[in-house]
Design brief:
By secondary structure, the protein is of the alpha+beta class. It is about 35% helix and about 25% strand.
Amino acid sequence: MADSRSTCQGGEFDGHKLATPRDEALCGQGGGVVVAGQPTSDGCMGGSVENFSATRGQALHFNSLRNAAAIFGEREEVALLRRLSAAAVPATDALLSIEPEYIERLSEAGQRIEIIASNLIDPEFDGVLYTEEDHRFFVKIGRELAERTGDDVFPELLETATQVAEQHLNVRALEVRERFGGLPQPPDLDVSDTDLNLTSPLGNLSNLTYDLSPVLMHHHHRLDKLDLMVDVDTITDLMHSARAETAIAAKADQLGALAASPLGEVTPVRGGFVRRYADCDIYYSDTTGAHEVHGEIRRKYSQVNGPTLLGLPTTDETGCPDGKGRFNHFVKSSIYWTPTTGPFYVRNPCRFRWASQSWETGPLGYPVRDEESLSAAYPGGGPTMYWSHFQNGMVFGRGGDAQEALAATATRQQVLDALRTTIDRRMPSFELDTGIFSYTVRGGLHGVDFLGVDDWQYGFYGSVPRTLRIRVNGFVSVPLAPDPTFQIEMGLRFSTRWPIGSFFYPTTKKFVATLIHTRISVQGIASGTIAGMIQKAIWSAFTPGPADPEITDNSMVITSIPTGANQKPGAENLDFLDVMLMADGSLNVFVNPLPAIAGGFRRYFAQNALNSALENL
């Protein structure tokens, strides 16, 4: 068994908690290694803050910071800041999703750092690089983050960084650059009528001579004039764009007819570039390469703003081992599609837990809804809770951990018995006139047959749940004549409903059985009258009352279920997740499995509540 504090470092599953040997194996398959302790990353002043800024429509990048880190990467100060930033990731990622006040402050911190880095590597700037105001700001926000990290590493690093930073307070940029060993010499430029060669010691251009004339000529519309002092960021952007065009064109040639009709030029998107075609889109970044998305997966990816929410594709659309489904992997996320479920995305630790159980070939099957989530409603709250629905179960996650949801179960026979009881109870008495005698009679039931379960059906925003098919057998006792008999064939779906329009997650959901279709046949005297009586009983059973205004179709309320939703700061919780009809005709009520002891109690109470609801239906 893996150490409960182990995480996957690096690779496709970087940062995920590891709970089983299968988790460890999956980490290795994804190019990562198993380490103890907290997950690591490139740091808080990177993907998290930049991604958030993108969703807010803000332009916040750290190009100067990255260039400065490349130039002065050997300095002790740079190494210290890298460790400090990485140690802050758990706290900053949580704050980005739950505390609006700190979201803005973290963005401001990123802007301040970028300005300092920009001034540091600008040879024309010789003002004070790091002011008292800067120092007070970073110390204050650092101490606030230290309170949220929950470990001893970040506070110790913060104290060391504070002492180092004080050495550079109110020092002019020129002196700081001299302390750091000075800036590299300007690039050597060899200008001729035919080419422009650049040798640069910075970043990914290190020790590289690159002929830029085709790049500059192709992108002349992006430059007001050809300035020999073009900054490294601009040249790097142009080179990235040129690589994207070359790679996308090669991928289009490989795809043939699928990419035969371009709809525009190569354009930037979050994390890379895209070119759209009539039948597919091809995305590119230096780290992911060029990959296409098409069909229903493309439609879902576009609908959810895929580059921002899911990252760029890391595979082309690919067939699944069962020959039915298809998928694209994206950066730490996936979209899976089948013709009987639809296209749905899985991401975060829910995806890791599903993958650890053999993806769609494992017991959970394919996803049938996009991931749902519940973020803390107030500043100071806990981590986001999220869950994913699959054909045969659910996975629930909180913070960096996710586990398969626990289930309270009603057997198929319990379900059939409960339906028989409620339909029998609602059979009315009525007058039966045979033409010779009049009787007061009442129908009765003598059994319910299980006819099968229809599988999930296609849906774009959520697959249509399974349908339970049953046949109810009954009779009407008539004096002095053979008793008429009847059969009612019914299709039922099970789901939850709640009032819409509230800002907060519902504290109660109603567990309902919805009548999808019905067919009544009667044998014997007065068959038309009896059929009408039965139809009236069915409509009575599946007509919601005035206490259920949120239910507008033919549904029977089985019970109301408290969700346990609590969004108070520091006490966020969710107990009940959803209900699901299983392939064998049983019913599952899924509950939050985290932490394990609490999950066990949730399942116990859910089981008692489910049994009671069916017995009293």
